[in-house]
Design brief:
- It is built from seven helices and 19 strands.
- By secondary structure, the protein is α+β, with helices and mostly antiparallel strands.
- The strands form six sheets. A seven-stranded antiparallel sheet has the order 11-12-10-9-8-14-15. Strands 7-6-16-13 form a four-stranded antiparallel sheet, with no helix packed on it.
- The longest helix is centred in the first third of the chain and has 17 residues.
- It starts with a helix and ends with a strand.
- The relative contact order is 0.15.
Length: 319
């Protein structure tokens, strides 16, 4: 999918209006090479609630995912009440590497959007602001996302929030995995056939809900007797052969079969290469980042009376 720069600018403006309505006084933003955040502030007029003061993270962007990790770490050090993320699964993964225990509210603007949601930006601002201000307890509106710990020679090396895949070859190419060719193994923390991405392959075989304390691992072979169909990328539905299916349980390492040079893809993007000289493994962890559910936040705000400005009347009598 493609979300234009102008669309993202509009989203940031609406987020700020939502944060203002929630009573947030200060917002810290990261710079970006596309100048999205800077452009969002141009021509942004305060509504009835005014606008928060804006501060910037002191950092230089390199145009890589490390920018998101660096920004998240800076926000965690500032004890931010919540972090709103615009991106796909890969961006949320990068943010989670630096966010520590700061809750995240991911909004879909990426290619694979299994974890981020299509929440309206104004609502996202209201929800994140309510949590940041302590109007709603985190335990009532958030959950800890599962993640996959990648092991190289039995040492923790990297992570994925949604899926890990092994792809034949040594080169990252366009990074995003758009083809079934060379796809050897897929592990997923959640598996939903109604999503788009590599985890949809697992969803077509053995669905796993986000809140279930388990995951699924597949070994793929185009010649396998079991053939499935899955939407692995926007507009791309592929047929794949599944040779083996295993359940991932928390803190139980699974050895990955590597007999040739492979690229390790994390949350849909090729990240680094490995080969038979290393022992690759993965284990499911359940202590991942806190993910905010905007719907639950808004429902909790209603329940606690935070959206009620005056007493409603019914039949001439006050409630």
């Amino acid at each position: 999918t493609t979300v234009s720069t102008q669309d993202k600018i509009s989203m940031v403006r609406r987020i700020l209006q939502g944060l203002a309505a929630a009573g947030v006084a200060r917002v810290v933003m990261m710079p970006d090479q596309a100048q999205i955040t800077a452009q969002a502030l141009q021509g942004l007029y305060p509504a009835a609630h005014g606008l928060p003061s804006i501060a910037w993270i002191d950092m230089r962007c390199q145009g890589t995912s490390e920018d998101s990790t660096t920004a998240a770490a800076a926000l965690a050090d500032l004890q931010a009440g919540a972090i709103i993320v615009l991106g796909g699964d890969g961006t949320v993964r990068a943010v989670s590497c630096g966010a520590q225990n700061t809750p995240l509210l991911p909004l879909s603007t990426g290619t694979n959007n299994v974890l981020p949601t299509f929440t309206e930006a104004t609502i996202a601002g209201l929800a994140a602001g309510a949590v940041a201000r302590g109007l709603v307890p985190l335990s009532s509106c958030a959950w800890r996302h599962k993640w996959l710990e990648v092991l190289v020679d039995d040492r923790p090396t990297d992570r994925a929030l949604v899926d890990l895949a092994l792809v034949r070859g040594r080169f990252s190419g366009a990074r995003a995995v758009w083809s079934a060719e060379g796809l050897l193994q897929v592990c997923a923390t959640r598996a939903d056939p109604a999503t788009v991405g590599l985890s949809a392959i697992a969803g077509a075989v053995r669905p796993v809900a986000p809140e279930e304390p388990r995951g699924v691992a597949l070994r793929l072979d185009p010649q396998a007797a079991s053939q499935i169909m899955a939407p692995v990328a926007p507009g791309l539905v592929l047929t794949l052969g599944v040779a083996q299916v295993e359940t991932l349980l928390p803190n139980r390492p699974l050895t990955l079969e590597v007999n040739e040079p492979v690229m390790v893809a994390l949350d849909g993007e090729r990240e680094w290469s490995s080969g038979p000289q290393h022992r690759l493994g993965v284990q499911l962890r359940t202590d991942g980042p806190w993910i905010l559910d905007a719907r639950r936040v808004m429902a909790e705000l209603v329940h606690r009376g935070h959206l009620k400005l005056t007493s409603a009347t019914e039949g001439g009598k006050s409630e």
